[in-house]
Each structure stands twice: as C-alpha cells, then as structure tokens.
Amino acid sequence: MSNILQPVLDLYPKYSIEKQKCPSYVEMFTKKIEDVVMVYLKIKQTSTSAESAGKVNKNVEEELDLTGSPLKLDLSLHTILDDTLISEEAQLWNKEEASHVPISIEKAREIANFYNMSIAKLPPQDSIPMWILCNPSSEGAPLLLTIQSNEEFFSRGIVTYDGAMCLEEVDVEELVEKYAKQESLSADLVDVLVDCKYSLSGLSYSSRNTDELLNAPHGGATELRCEWSANTLITPFISCKVHFEQEVIVGHLASPCNAIWKSVHALHNINQILVDMTAAGSSSVNLETTQIRFTNPSLKHPNNSKRLNQLLNDTEAYAYTADYPEGGCVCVTDNTTTLKECLSAMNVKGSSNDFIYKLWDILRDSESAEELINLLIQALKFISTGKIRPFIDANNKTYLSKLVLKLSRGHSQASKVLKNLRSSPPQALSLVAQVGTEKTMWEYTRVMSLLEHSFFIAGIWTSDNRTHESIEQINQTIQDMTMGGEYSLNPFESLSSGDHSIRLDCESFYEDDPNELTVDDFASLKKHGLVSDKRDANEPIAARLLEYYVSERSPVKTVGQLISDPVQRTSMPIANNVVQEHLKKPAFWYRMVLQRKEKAAEMGVKRDSKLVYAFTQLPVFPPAVWQNLGKRNQLNKRGGRLI
C-alpha cells in the first residue's frame, strides 16, 4: 500500500494522505469501521475550538464544485458557530478529528483521479477506498468525495449537505420514490433500512488521550442501537431490533473497580521487569526508574513508608485479638447488597485482614521497583525482631507468607536472608508478584461470588478446578521464569549449602488452625441466602460480559492492551420490551439507507447504488467543516427549522 500511496504523497506533499481507520464522519455513512485512505489538511496543534479551526480554514478556503451525485445526504445541524466546544457535551465527531481541515473540490478531484489511476489494475483485495474531506462553501455543499476502483469495478460517491428541517417533515415515501425514479425501479423494489442511536447515560471519550480518559467527567457511555426495515423514522419500539452498547474506561477515577485494577496494573509492570531481568540479567533494569504503580495525574501520591509503619504498628497492637470476619473478607458485610458497595469498601480498607495481603496493597502503590524492594525489606526487618505475630489466613500459601511467619518466630539466619534478598531484586519482586497474583485472584473469584448480581459469573469462576488451575498456572509461570535465573522464590534456598544453614520444609512454615474458616466456606451464594434458586434477570447480560472480558474469544488479550487503550466497548442484543420507554423518545441521530432489493439486482439502471440519509441535531463533521455549513444554513434555512 505504501508503494501505491508514495506517488500521491510526492505530488501533494502539503496534504495529509494516509491509510487509517475511517474517521467517525466516514463511518456514519459507511456503517462499518474499515481501512481507508484519508485526505485532508491538518492543523499542526490539535484544538477543539471552532475558532481555531476556522482561522486555519480561512487560509485554505477555495472555490468548490462537483458534478454528479450518486449519493445525496441530508445532514441537519444544531445551532452552530459557537466559539468553543465544551468537551463534556455530546458530539458526533472525535476530538482528534478537530484537526481535520477540508480542501478545495478541484484539488480533491485531482487527487482522486490520480489515485484512481494508481489502483485501477489492482485485484479487489488490494484496493482501498479513498475519502477526501471537502470544503462545502460552494453550491451543493460537498462534504466528502470518495473513490475506489480495481481490475473488476469502479465506484465513486459524494456526501452533501441538503439543509435543515423538522424530523416530522421528512417524507420517507417521497424519498423512496425519488430513489426509485433515479434507478428506474418501482418503489416496491427499494429496500429501506433505518437505524438510530439513543444515548442513555455518559458520553463517549474513545478518542481522548489516556490522561483525559481517566479524568473524564464520565467513566463511559451507555447507548441503545436500534434497527428496522420500514418506511418511517419513528422507532417501531415493539418490532425493532435493539442492541445494548456500553463503553467503559478501564482505570477511570470514578470506577470502584480500581481496587482490583491497581493490583492488575502493578502485576503487569512487575512481570515485565522480571521478563527483562530474565532475558538480560538483573543489572539490565534500572530499579529507580521502573514504574510499578497505577498512576493518574489527579491522584495524590501516597506516602507508602508512612502507610507501612502504620500497618506494622496496627499489627503490633491487635496481634491475634483482631476480629476476623468470615472468609477473611472485610469488604462484604451483612448489609452489602451491590458489587459497587463491595468494591468501594475495598478501595478504602482493602479486602482482607491477612497481613501479607495488606502489605501487597501498600507495595503495589510503589512508584518504582527500588521503592517496592526497600519497603519489603523494611517490613521483613521489623518482623524479624519478633515484636509482632502477623495474622496470615490459612489459605495463604505464598512463599512470602511462610517467610513472614518464620521470621516472626525467630530465625538464626534472618539477617543473612534479608541481606541476600536485598541483593537479589528478581527474587524480591517474585515473592511480591506471587502474593499479588493470589490476592488479586482471590478478590476476583471470592469477593464477586458473594454478591447477588454476579451469580452467573460466580458459577463459572468459583469452580474449584478453574480457580485452582488458574492460580497454579500463574504461580508456575512465575516460578519457571525465576528459577531459570540465579534466584528462586524460596529465600532460604540459597542458604542450604552453608555449614550453618537450615533447609526448611515449606509445609512446616505454618500450622493450619482447624477452627479457622476458609474462603472456600463462603463461595456458595445459596448457603448464605444471597440468591434464590431462580436465576437473576441480568444473567444474559452477565454471560455476554463474561464472554467479552474473560473467555478465549475476548478481544482483550493482555493487560498492556488495556493500559494503552483503556476504552472498551461491548455490544449485545437485548429484548426491546426491556427498553421500550427509552425507544418512545427522540433518538440521538437517525440514519436511513436506500438500495435496490436483492430480487431487483438486474433491473433498472445497470449499476449498484446506495443512498444514505443522516438526520442529526449535532454536527457530524469537525469544526473546520461545519462552520461553513452553518454559514450556508443561516442564509438558507427556512424559519429556523432544525431536526
């Protein structure tokens, strides 16, 4: 593709001409996200200000003209020409597209013809459509020009602005008749497909940078997409097909799931450090600069040393007299009714009274690997004095928990163990990573399983085999990675060859208390009467979410993928009777597609054509384009009627 585009780039160097995913204003008419070659001028510094875009637009404003109109679009706009766009208000174009500036129609046709000659002999699979953003200041108000050809066919299209009118004024039957006449067909051979979008809550921030996403006023968006085949723009709320769509921002400040996301984020970073150390040696990683914690510009950086001292002091004070709740879970009580309540409580006070788990909640907030290791050694050094006997849940079988129990009871090699641990960053990080992995898995599988609306998820994730295998698999991965180097998860192992060393049996590090209740005792929802035998109405939705985020078919493959692209969208069919009250209201936008029915493929004009109408109150295009539309609209609109 680069070879095909290079001659175009060489001939028109001042324009932005590149292969990319189609912009939102192209997707509005194609109804699909695909690779296209986009052509436009680009503002050097992106701005959402219509005034800024307008200044640039004046420099490139040229005469426009276009003959032929295989596509005729009806775009009706809200009152426009405001000096600024408030980012918290809904908009149809993406923020990044604010830098897109249109070019003259003469230049657009020139570029399109040149590109067409370059691709005319390509096989269909190698040909990519070109879309050119046009300045709509001329008669006919062209907005987009598109062209595509290959060795088998040629196609072209144009998007124009036809003015403003009330939604009730749109006569679908008349539009169908016009299209049928244009194609030399009878009206009954025209296929009509209408779709629309309802915005229920929140706003889409899918085009923002990461910092803006995490600080956005809304943590995502909830929308309904509807579709029907009938000659009307009024939603047939009884018969239309409805999709429930949700956009979430992973790591958004308002998300209660950050209690778990902090751990996942930190584990990802620790894992990457261990991988680098295994590949190139411990000295290859700068511990002072490698990031551990989940960062956000609006978050206050915690004083982790102070938090650790407080934990040690609290542990010394309560020793074994603390009130340990059932299953060790401190964020679920008899009054907990929703997952949000549980996760919010987890954000404030953690999920467990287990000392090792509480320690992880501090270590995961370390700014660097150096700080994490220093805090770990500080905690172990204090524990080795024997002043405290930290509580550790019987199910916590991590190496670090065993080390803490042994050190708290006195050990002749304590100082040497700590010294060796300090000199082996991979071993220290591995010990912490194992704790973080098991604690995060425990929170995900056990805490969520105690809540009513996660019954369906709990039914899968609380399976003994699934849970056990998942934890063991992660533990084995860590061990395989670390054992291959010059270090191990067992900090005592390096002392086994010395004259004064003690080789310890892992299973002797702690004694099970037969009176202690384990988390397994609390995995059953029915046992505690949290759910009835009848399944919850939300379980169809839960099944789809489980498939999207957890199953092998999930598009989310790595934590790094979520860190770099925190916006995730899900779409699922939903019964329209559940949302009928919403469907009786006006939609955010409507789109109507007219084309010949399948049985009329060989009738009428011997060409394939499609006519797309978009009806919306808000601009589909970025400021540099809709400014000019607004000027035309103010001159031509009839009595200020807007859809």
Can you offer a commentary on this structure?
By secondary structure, this protein is of the alpha+beta class. Helix content is 37%, strand content 14%. It contains 20 helices and 12 strands. A hairpin with a 4-residue loop joins β5 (142-149) and β6 (154-160). The two termini are 41 Å apart. The model is unreliable at 45-87, 452-468, 481-487, 492-533 and 634-643 (pLDDT under 50).
The share of residues in helices is 25-40%
Output the number of helix runs. Answer: 20
| Major sheet | 6 strands, mixed
Portion in beta strands: 5-15%
The low-confidence runs, each spanning 5 or more residues with pLDDT under 50, are 45-87, 452-468, 481-487, 492-533, 634-643
Shape: elongated
Q: Give the averaged pLDDT, no decimals.
A: 76
* Helix vs. strand class: alpha+beta
Radius of gyration: 31 Å
Number of strands: 12
Distance between the termini: 41 Å
Characterize this entry briefly.
The protein is α+β, with helices and mostly antiparallel strands.
Descriptors for this entry?
single chain; disordered C terminus; 643 residues; 12 strands; 20 helices; 6-stranded antiparallel sheet; alpha+beta; 6-stranded mixed sheet
How are the SSEs ordered, and which strands pair?
Layout: H1 2-11, E1 16-21, H2 24-30, E2 35-42, H3 50-60, E3 100-101, H4 105-119, E4 130-133, E5 142-149, E6 154-160, H5 172-182, E7 190-202, H6 210-214, E8 220-228, E9 241-249, H7 258-280, H8 304-318, H9 339-349, H10 355-363, H11 369-383, H12 399-408, H13 414-422, H14 425-447, H15 455-461, H16 464-483, H17 539-549, H18 559-564, E10 567-574, H19 580-583, E11 589-596, E12 610-616, H20 623-636
Parallel strand pairs: 2-4
Antiparallel strand pairs: 1-2, 2-3, 4-5, 5-6, 7-8, 7-11, 8-9, 9-10, 11-12
